[in-house]
Amino acid sequence: MGRTRVTLADVAAASGVSVTTASLVMTGRARELRISEAAERRVLSTAQELGYRRGTVTQSPPEGLSRTIGFVSDTVASSGLAGDMVKGAVDAAYARGFMLFVGESGGDPVVERDLVEAMRDRRADGIVFAAMYTRAVAVPDCLHHGPAVLLNAAAATRRDTPSVVSDEVRGGRSAAHVLVDAGHDSGVHLIGAGPGPYDVPPNSIAAVERLLGLHEVFGSAGVEVVSAHRCPKWTPECGYDATRELLRHHLPKALVCFNDRLAFGAYQALGEAGLSVPGDVSVIGFDDHPIASWMRPRLTTVALPHYELGARAVAVLVEMVERRERRARTPMIHRVPMPVREGGSVAPPR
């Protein structure tokens, strides 16, 4: 007969609350995060009835692998933009005989830690720790208590956990090549970041690496970047304002927008100025946000490979889990290519 154990997920299900809520109650943080007294009492009484003890099981844990993977994220799980990241992870886990459990922290470090501990508590074989956008993250110490992979993120301090990220430098090169191949050798302006590698939004790894790729290709092709407009946030409003300011001083031939939402704002400012895309100004973006397909003309953009990122993270983690006893060395950074999605927003300069 198989051994039984009580997990935090069992307590949560029997109490009618989320695993996150159950974890906060069991760690004494219910009042801190305004969990109702009724829910707190229900979780505590259920835990006592089931014989749950934090970090323990009622009997010895089963030998071997649990065939489960924890997926802890800030907002990626509920974001339409990056839903494919979760789908890629789910499909890759299923194909390898694993089940994926997803938890969302909302970016709260306390909840992040408790989610990781909850995943470890139910004997997850490994954990994918994901971010909504590529950035440096503070990794909870408990993540290092077993196999783990960072997804769309890099550790801000401790660097011994593998990361799976988009190949942003190559993405920047690809964007520059699109303009150079179309014949653009002057009148190029940047919207969102630059001109220097530190003129970027806070903690934005993507901005730094995209800049590196852009400057590499433009420099080799002899293309001078006339101006760069750093935006504190990559929103349509910021793209609109930056482009309006640019038009006060220059008549651009091409705009490189550091994401598609900036490009949407740029489209509006160009249209108000009586300029057409791509007849007067070519525009290229990044991310392949759903908004790109609704823009007219359809925006040419360098895509974030969300599905492939999720799938690669799980593949790397499963390899770590299954080869753990052989102490196989895993590359610390895994880069996933960013394909160009052709639209109608780039044309040869007049």
TrEMBL record:
InterPro entries xref list: HTH_LacI, LacI/GalR-like_sensor, Lambda_DNA-bd_dom_sf, Peripla_BP_I
Keyword Lyase attached: no
HTH lacI-type domain location: 6-54
Gene3D superfamilies given in the database record: 3.40.50.2300, lambda repressor-like DNA-binding domains
Entry keywords, A to Z: DNA-binding, Repressor, Transcription, Transcription regulation
GO MF term list: DNA binding
Entry keyword annotation includes Transcription regulation: yes
UniProt-listed Pfam families: LacI, Peripla_BP_3
Name this protein carries in UniProt: LacI family DNA-binding transcriptional regulator
Protein species of origin: Lentzea rhizosphaerae
